[in-house]
Amino acid sequence: MSTRHFLSLLDLSPDELRGIMARASELKAINRSGELHETLKNRILAMIFEKSSTRTRMSFEAGMAQLGGHAIYLSPRDTQIGRGEPIEDTARVLSRMADAIMIRTFEHSKIERFAAYSEVPVINALTDLYHPCQLLADMLTWIEHRGDITGKTAAWIGDGNNMCHSYINAARQFGFRLHIAAPPGYSPDAQLVANAGSCAVLFDNPLEAAADADLVVTDVWASMGQEEEQARRIKAFADFQVNAAVMSAVRPDALFMHCLPAHRGEEVSAAVIDGPQSVVWDEAENRLHAQKALLEFLVAPGASTSS
Ligand code: CP
Ligand code: NVA
Q: In sequence order, which residues have a C-beta less than 8 Å from that of residue 286 and are 6 or more positions away?
């Protein structure tokens, strides 16, 4: 069987994604119980980070340690990756030594080229196009708090960025509706929206997108690599903050999520992110449990049935 990769949520079937959610809940309970659970004993995860990270590095590294394996951090600054060694060569070398490879980089085409030459599973830990691991955590968080997300409505308020793109794919795979409100010029990729059919709908106005939503989500206005656009973006996004007005449009029991890091006073008010409907800390913790389930699925597919 050919090597499975996780470059986008569309690489797994809806059933496989739901299986990972169920397994993540089991692994979370095992973790809470303190029981030793080493289904990836002696396995190696190589982690290439071409952008900064707190949650992603911590969750993959802690997850591999908890599963009995090991994670190795590689940055362009102190490897040959930063000195121009072809990505195809790096992929072939690392996949001779590691059981899986996680990459955070800029162009999505780079991770696709890497995966084409890798003999072991490649995991997308964020590209300019997608952030699928974050969606595993977000969906797990929804399921824990509210149950099935099928048929629900999520509102994305803000930039049509990598997180928004992964939300569009999540809407397709998990069967919910995504209402997207982005300022002119910052809409998500039109083809991705079209591919999602009725699962993704664009709105001009944040309050209209938020109307009766079950979940409201946002992200930074300037992503990594867009630092020089920060001032222009702050102006363009001024009317797209998730604040009390947006929260008064959503359902009273709606949840608020944000992948973090957040900028209070920009994309979200402090009152919302630190308020009672926010589940951002559960969401951040769930990176750990969801990615452990993903690692088991890709590296040791039989592991969950032996527990
Ligand atoms: N949400 C997320 O991916 O956080 P980091 O950039 O800290 O990894
Ligand atoms: N959209 C953000 C997400 C960070 C986790 C970025 O790409 O910087």
A: 24, 28, 136, 137, 138, 140, 141, 144
